[in-house]
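Help wanted!
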Amino acid sequence: MQAKFQLRLRRERKVNRSLPVDIAIFGLLACAGAFMAAPFVFMVSTALKPLDEMFLFPPTFIVRHPTLDNFYDLFLIFANSWVPLSRYIFNTFFVAFLGTAGHVVLASMAAYPLAKLRLPGGNLLFTLVVLSLMFAPQVTSIPNYLTVSWLGLLNTYWSLIFPAFATSLGLFLMKQFMEQIPDSLLEAAKIDGASEYRIFWNIVMPIVKPAWLTLIIFSFKGLWGTGTGGQGASFIYSEQLKTMDYAFSQILSGGFVRSGPMAAAALIMMLVPVAIFIMTQSNVIQTMSTSGMKD
Amino acid sequence: MSEVEQVHMKLPDPTRSVSPPAPGRNPGKLAALMQQMRQQKQGYVLLAPYFVLFFVFTAFPVLMAFALSFTYFNVLEPPKWIGWDNYATLFIKDEVFLIALKNTLLFAVITGPISYIACFMLAWLINELSPKLRAVVTLLFYAPSISGNVYLIWQVAFSGDSFGYVNAFLMKWGFILEPIQWLQDPKYMLFIIMLVQLWLSLGTAFLAFIAGLQGLDKTLIEAGAIDGVKNRWQELWHITLPSMRPQLMFGAVMQITSSFAVADVATNMAGFPSPQYAAHTIVTHLNDYGTIRFEMGYSCAIASVLFVIMLGTNMVIQKLLRKVGE
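Answered by r_m:
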């Protein structure tokens, strides 16, 4: 890999570059990569360790006799639980899918007029959205709890889904991306007599596909782990409405012996968001190139 | 000027309040405005669903938090107006809050800048790689921030017995004789949480930087080389950074906001409440009063303080970043 990499750099002969520094950079990246990757290696290795190997001294970094016992144990732990694991899985998928779908549609709908129509008050609304990026959602967690309870949404899926619809990062990214669409394209459709709704749905939405793939990964990642965040913990108190990540987070309370099943659970949980990111990476990068802020 | 940059030109300045077209003194202007709004009816219909929810769950709650912060409110009885009492208690009587404030600022001052610079430098280094390798490394660096609970593995690594990786390693090589209680000892707790926080911090800002670097205008760099830019450091300072300013500002917002909001990692790693409150932050303090003690007025005062700190820091940093490369 390394030889090929250096060859490639030489062939390209970029300006302002020298080989020694290129090698140093490669070394630095390798160190950073090792730091980033180590926990993942530990986790996979812990998930595959049999119980006796867990208590070796010194502990083995890489598993010697890999086994799937921990995954089996994970399901065994839930076999006796009052709420079956399948219900937690359903809850997570339901909340994550519905929340993400609604967010993508609503945020795109709102982004189009802000980006392309000159609405009185539009700039003010967008400024509010930008300002809301500047504080963490925890600031509004208490009022949100009160609002959700007044609306009668407490202890329903909707208490997690509705707030997710109106996340501000999604609207911000979508609006920035839509500004790239040439006005001439939209004007042509307008002359043909198309309504704004038609233009939005038939012309704008297909063009901004990279942006909605980006919104999907950001929204999904948030909702996927929602059960252990501040909101999931306080908005939902019925056990049968709790999500998978909440159920899994209880495993570790069993102590160090449970770290095998815990690693197995974490491994299962990360697969879905990581898979979505792998599939959408190039689109996400394309969207983020318009994410900048300027006066 | 690149295509990307032209897009940014139209953006409103978030720090300057943009007033809507003022309702004019003469009725003609007002009528024109109404006319314009009526013409754009479809636009407002498209905006409505998102912004109704945005106001219900984001904008009004901020105002509500401010209003409730001046009351005593325990959910069962109606809120009772008590003026500045909550704030007085917060800064004068509540010693735990001062610890939380200190810890939060420590987190923000250390992990904030380090993670921001790391995001940029790593993105800049990755940009030198070939496209395929670049995609793999991007995935590796970004993965922690999307893999949910995986950071709990750090708990196993820093486990307080001799089975934890770190203790075992140090004992085997003779640095220590008996295991250290990493996550129970206030001396180490903050450092470990910072380490985990840094591991998790290559998120949205990191992606924005990678994207910004890829969209950089190549002709600018070639022109710079002709004008006497000799090495990559000069190129970074004179060409790359100034053209990246919009992304740098966006990335700063993302990193600042998350570096002040440390809570879940601290709670999961060190427990709640943590020994001697060594891992107590403003957000854990807020959750304590809001979701455990149900003193909503007091926790809203905590939220308001957090809001002011976050927004203030963001405004100052935006002002500073606007000067990059000028």
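OP: Thanks! One thing I noticed: The CA atoms of residues 248 and 266 of chain A lie 8 Å apart.
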